[in-house]
Amino acid sequence: MPKIGRNREKGTLILIPLIMDRGEFEESKTFNLADILEFNSNAIVVKNISVQNNCIIQAFAFDYGKVLSHNESPFIRFIHIIEGKAEVVINGNSTFMRRGDSIIIPASTSCSFEANHKFKMLCTTIKNE
User: Fold this and answer.
1) Is the pTM of this model over 0.70?
2) Residue 35 backbone phi and psi in degrees, to 5
3) CATH number listed for the domain at residues 4-126
4) Which residue in 28, 36, 47, 57 has the fewest CB atoms around it within 10 Å?
5) Got the DSSP string for 65-79?
6) Other C-beta atoms lying within 10 Å of the C-beta of residue 21
């Protein structure tokens, strides 16, 4: 899960506002991913869509300059960019993504998400049993 963030402008590790909405969405009801969360100035906003024993689905909104780093994770993550552009760094290798792009982050890898522009993403974390 999220550990630490930093401000891109300053280049130093600092705690950043991480606004978490733990409420889940009702099953069998439609919703628009781009509309379920708003950007918040100088913060990363996280909304839980569904939390199950072996799968967590979350939506994130990153303000410009925000970075979210994960230590090595034993879980597979599926990332889909909903809006904007993102830089995803997996084991030190950068991948630039834009709206509509997706990537699978393998288990046992470290990664970070960097907001060179504001962006929203969907993250599905799959726990190996």
Assistant:
1) yes
2) -95, -10
3) 2.60.120.10
4) 28
5) TEEEEEEEESSEEEE
6) 14
Residue-wise pLDDT tens digits, 6-37: 444 444 334 455 565 556 677 788 888 888 88
**Sequence-ordered alpha helix ranges (H) in 40-128:** none
Domain boundaries, the chain: 4-126
Name the residue with tokens 């906003």.
45
d(CA 37, CA 100) in angstroms, rounded, equals 17
- Please determine, for residue 44, whether its predicted confidence score (pLDDT) is greater than 90: yes
Residues in the chain: 129
How do 66-73 and 55-62 pair as beta strands?
Answer: unpaired
d(CA 106, CA 103): 10
Residue with tokens 């009702």: 26
β-bridge mates for residue 48, sequence order:
58
Give, as one character, the DSSP assignment of residue 54.
Answer: S
Locate the DSSP E strands across 76-118: 76-90, 93-98, 102-105, 109-114
